[in-house]
Design brief:
Rossmann fold; 231 residues; 2 domains; DNA polymerase, domain 1
Length: 231
C-alpha cells in the first residue's frame, strides 16, 4: 500500500452508498416491513449477504434497468430466498427507499471540509431521482454526478470508470468503501484510490467479496480522510 500526497489531486470521486450513505443501515430498515409481515427475525448478516447476492446478479442481468426497479426485484428475490410472503406495495416501497437511507455521521462535515480544496464528484450505482434524496441528506452540492442510470451499466463494469475518466480532467483520486464495486475496477482503469473501511476490516455486509483487491491508502472514516488532507 502506498502513501499518497493528497495535496497533489484536483478532484475526489466518491462512491456514495456505503461510503457517504450508510446503505447497510438503510437496507435493514427498509426490509423491516417484510419481516414484520412474515413475523420472522433474520440476522442482519443473512439479510445483507442475501441482498448482495441478488443485487449483483440482477444488476448484471439488467444493466439498463433503473435502480428502484432493481431494488424491487431484489426485494422479491430476497423474499423468495427465505420463503417469505411479499406484496407489490412492499416491493415498491423498498425500491423507493434509497432517499431514506441515512448518511454516516461524519459524511457532511468531511465533505464540506474537502470541498474547500477539491472538486467533488460522485460515481454511483443509482438513478438521479434516488440520488437527489441522498444529496439533500448530505447537505452538499457535488460538482458532478455520474450515475448508472446515465451510463447504462452498473459498477464494477469498466464502462462506469471509463465514463468518469472521460468526463473529468486533472488529477482524480477515487474514494470508496466497496472493494468489489470500486477499487478493483478503479485499479483496472489506472486510478489511485482510497479505501474508506467503514466495516473496520470485516468482510461481508451488502458487498460481494473481492479477494486481492488493491488500494493506495486506507481510512476508517471520511473524517480521517479530511484530517489527512489538512482541511
Amino acid at each position: 500500500m502506498n502513501v499518497l500526497d493528497l495535496s497533489s489531486y484536483d478532484a475526489l470521486s466518491f462512491d456514495c452508498y456505503g461510503t457517504l450513505i450508510d446503505w447497510e443501515a438503510g437496507i435493514v430498515e427498509a426490509l423491516g416491513p417484510l419481516l414484520a409481515l412474515n413475523r420472522i427475525d433474520l440476522s442482519i448478516t443473512d439479510q445483507l449477504a442475501t441482498f448482495a447476492e441478488h443485487e449483483t446478479r440482477i444488476q448484471q442481468a439488467s444493466p439498463r434497468t433503473a435502480y428502484p426497479m432493481i431494488l424491487r426485484a431484489v426485494h422479491r428475490a430476497l423474499a423468495a430466498a427465505f420463503d417469505l410472503e411479499t406484496t407489490a406495495e412492499l416491493d415498491a416501497a423498498f425500491g423507493d427507499s434509497v432517499a431514506d437511507w441515512p448518511p454516516f455521521v461524519d459524511s457532511t462535515d468531511a465533505l464540506q471540509r474537502l470541498a474547500t480544496k477539491y472538486r467533488l464528484v460522485v460515481l454511483s450505482n443509482v438513478d438521479m431521482k434516488s440520488f437527489a434524496g441522498s444529496q439533500r441528506k448530505l447537505g452538499v452540492t457535488f460538482d458532478a454526478v455520474y450515475t448508472a442510470e446515465a451510463i447504462g451499466s452498473y459498477k464494477p463494469d469498466p464502462a462506469n470508470f471509463a465514463h468518469l475518466l472521460g468526463h473529468e480532467e486533472g488529477r482524480l483520486l477515487h474514494v470508496a468503501q466497496s472493494l468489489y464495486h470500486d477499487h478493483v475496477p478503479a485499479k483496472a482503469a489506472g486510478m489511485e484510490s482510497v479505501w474508506i473501511d467503514r466495516r473496520g476490516g470485516a468482510a461481508g455486509g451488502a458487498t460481494p467479496p473481492a479477494p486481492g483487491a488493491a488500494y493506495d491508502m486506507r481510512f476508517e472514516s471520511m473524517a480521517e480522510l479530511a484530517d489527512a488532507a489538512g482541511v
